[in-house]
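Researcher: I'm preparing a figure for a lab meeting and need a structural model of a single chain. I don't have an experimental structure, so a prediction will have to do for now. The sequence is pasted below. Please return the structure as C-alpha cells so I can convert it later.
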Amino acid sequence: MVAYRGNASVELARSTTSLNIDTTHLIEIRYKPHTTAGIFQVKIDGVLEIDYYGNTTAGGETFDTFNFWTTSGYNVLGYIDNFIVDNSKWPGNTSIQAIKPVGAGNSSLWTPSASENYACVDEVPASESDFIATNTLNHLDLYAAGDLVGTIGSVKCVQLQALAIAEGSPTPEHLQLAVRSNGADYFGDSKAVPSVVMGMSTLWEANPATAAPWQEAEVNVMEIGVKAVA
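Model: Understood. Here is the structure written out cell by cell.
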C-alpha cells in the first residue's frame, strides 16, 4: 500500500507488507490534511505500516469525499466492505450487521401489499415487489427486529434504512424513520418522500431512550419502522 499526496504525484510512504489474494484484511487509515502538520497512517490487520507526518495535502485542509481507484498499470481484484468512518479514534476490528424486520411491532397502521406488514419490508437487499403504503398523517408502522449475532464488544450506532416513493398526490409528503426503545417511540428528521424510489436513512449514535451508547440487549429488543408526516 502506498500513501500519496495530490493526484498520485508525490509518494509519501509505503507499507512493507503486501496484501495477499484470497485473503481478508482489515485496513485502517488515519488522515489529517495539513501543509505542515498533516498525518497519514495506515494499519494492516492492526499493525502500523505507514506512519507519515508532514505535508499531506495538495489543496485545502478539509475534505468531504472518499474515492476508491487504481492508477493505470495496476490490476486490483477484490472487494471493499464495511467502510467505516470515525472522527476521533481508530475504528479497530469493527463490522456492520444487517438487522431486518422479523415480526409485527407495537403499531401496524400502514397497509401491506400482501401478507403481514413486516413481511413486506424484510428483504435484504431491499425489494420493490412488495411494500407498505398509507395516505394518512401520523400513521406509524413498527416491526420487531432481529438480533445481533456473534460476540459483540460494543455497539457504535444504529442506522435505519428504507426505500420510499410518493405516488399521486398523497396527504403525507414526508416520513420519519422510527425506533422504539424502552417502551417509547423516537423519530428521525422529517424527510420529503420523492417521486422516484430513493433510499433514506437515519443514524442514532446513542440510544435515544437513554442518551447513552447502545447496549447489545437494547438493540436485540428494539423495534424499527416508519411514520407518515405532513
